[in-house]
């Protein structure tokens, strides 16, 4: 095996162009494929940015390079020093004529999936060999889009004066009251993994006022759908002196900015994924829960007022509203305890969802800021205020009116990259039950 | 209680200056203090950006404003509409003459800590009322510095082409082999909370090549020092085709950039904290482990070669090197299994630490990329390769040479904000055993 030694990569593969004709380059990457045509051998070399052809004319090449190239197999890690040459024999109009090859690491001959992408594998086979699956150009594209989207959200919130924070994942009791929690043995106590930063971020509006958090959260629901993960990444904001309308306006600007940024900077990735999307117009459509029920009824789906809207009904709705839309004015009993009921009609609350077709992308709302009302709502929901006492004491210290929302980053990635299965949008999906370290 | 209604905040408090003399403003925030001097009443109003004086001349003010101001106590959340007036009676040279006050929320009379900062509380009392403690100007300053530092790291890495990723927190087995893990009940299995993204980030160098992750990680060590947390935030990078020297060069640039950025953009926060630091010069000093031992021996601390360096010895060393310095060339047996032993002398490895005085700020190194060597090192460390089989299979698929490091964000915040206790640099310290909330 060779060592990198004093070699320095001169270019990422996608940066090698006809402009570099006759110049010497040093490339680092992997063998994606080897094609031997008798007197000539083609090595398709890959890095995270793309592929390039290394052309070996057996009679003309340095014998040491030929000898080294005899060894090469798919996924061998290599470094190539060579000259860029214009050609009309490759799609990119260039090839590399190697003067030296270093073999940095080997791979087994029988790879579990086809890395050239010619024979697509099913998602289970892909996940079994995820580290290898992640080398596929289309898989890399999904995560470049995810990275770009998150960076766009961050810079937008940063510009608007939101502070990024880090709240605990190991907590003493439920946040939402409802969802299943994973138990953790915390020294001699039992604790839980946080399902959201909700209570902490509400408390932080008392001091930092405008905050956001990005990070993993946990729901102990075995996954039966293609839209759920037991470990997911949430982008949470919370803001003092704001209500649902304020944070909905912020949210649609954020989503718009993300769409513009991804469309502009990820055109190659969208091309690889064969996916196109339109940047949505502002403002997004706003439907009340009651309007949604009426709409559904017209299309033969009858949901009693007050009930949650099942996924199948949202699928119907997704056909009627095939883009981003808000659903507002939910029944108070369908939303969690901290969502504020409307003053003029407490049956209805200031909670909202942002939908994309049938996918619930974001949940948010105005929160209750008065302690008595919050305690009352906890009791209505069958929760014991005593187990929230540490949280409730913060309401004695000047809790401001506040509102916020949480975006599921993997779901947003589904929308932006056109993936139908959420497992494709998370590097190592945790919801496959079989744990993979 | 009043409602915000159609009021819109016109300014953050620190943005109100003499330039706005005679103009009307709307401010949102909290009562920090009320001082009644008979015919005149001063309300010190606070938001996340600072404080301002609201001056109420009892005989001249609108009776409704006076009446409202009679109710005000510390930490009541308020909105004030009023006129900016120049004055030489306040430190900032301005005051607000209110025309209307809205009372948005109340607080209890007996606050557990003095929010004016005049009577500092000890850290335990502060943490018991953390949501309130976080309203102190000096506490806010610490987290603004942390936010700024993280943002500086991110934008630096982003510019250099690193992709931000999210790896699992619920894992099947140990990453490092050594440290204590928190157990999680994962449906019908036992799983653990990740102590680092180490194995995943190594695997990702095969595909995404240059990656970073920021997020919570967990160590089940009861905290006995002021530098440890059982839940902490790690900033991790990993890079293909790189060795320790490459990532050390990157690291010192990152730290330098962070120091410059914090110094430039957080001068107010550093002033509040009464803390000054010098931007370090590049390159940072590099000491080998052996040099460190020699240095310590000269100062009467004798450590046998091969042993880890205890905290007390680092305290001595911190006096000799009162700034950032690298410690390189550690004994292989003192570092974890995946750190690469030097080819020319395998007793010594390519692991390094970045120290700031006595604080270990960053750990990193060149990793082993060859499967046989890695398996061999696992066995030497008493680990069972079988329990790493999912990780080891990735080494059959073309693992590139790679290196990386991990910064402890809270420790970096200690260095940048001059805090001596790590609990001050994390919003809700998890290591207090008593879980909150």
What can be said about this structure in brief?
Helices cover 28% and strands 26% of the residues of chain A.
Would you mind describing this structure in some detail?
The structure is a homodimer of 437-residue chains. With 437 residues, the first copy, chain A, is of the alpha+beta class. Helix content of chain A is 28%, strand content 26%. Chain A contains 12 helices and 16 strands. Chain A has helices at 63-71, 123-128, 130-133, 137-159, 198-204, 244-265, 267-272, 289-298, 311-320, 371-380, 389-393, 409-417; strands at residues 24-36, 40-47, 50-57, 77-86, 94-105, 163-164, 170-171, 183-186, 189-193, 210-218, 231-240, 285-288, 324-328, 351-356, 359-366, 402-408. Chain A has an 8-stranded mixed β-sheet, sandwiched between helices. The first copy, chain A, has a 5-stranded antiparallel β-sheet with strand order 3-2-1-4-5. In chain A, strand 14 and strand 15 (359-366) form a beta hairpin. In chain A, helix 4 (137-159) crosses helix 6. The radius of gyration of chain A is 27 Å and the shape is elongated. The two termini of chain A are 28 Å apart.
Derived structural class of chain A: alpha+beta
Give the ordered list of helices and strands of chain A. EEEHEEHHHEEEEHEEHHEHHEEEHHEH
The overall pLDDT average of chain A reads 94
- Share in β-strands of chain A: 25-35%
Number of strands of chain A: 16
User: Main interface pair?
Assistant: A-B, 99 and 99 residues
Any idea what the radius of gyration of chain A is? 27 Å
Low-confidence stretches of chain A: none
Q: What is the oligomer described by this structure? A: homodimer
What portion of residues of chain A is helical? 25-40%
How would a crystallographer describe the biggest sheet of chain A? Answer: 8 strands, mixed
Number of helices of chain A: 12
Q: Order the strands across the largest sheet of chain A as they lie in space.
A: 6-10-11-16-15-14-13-12
Please state the overall shape of chain A, judged from the principal axes of the Cα atoms. elongated
- Quote the distance from N terminus to C terminus of chain A: 28 Å
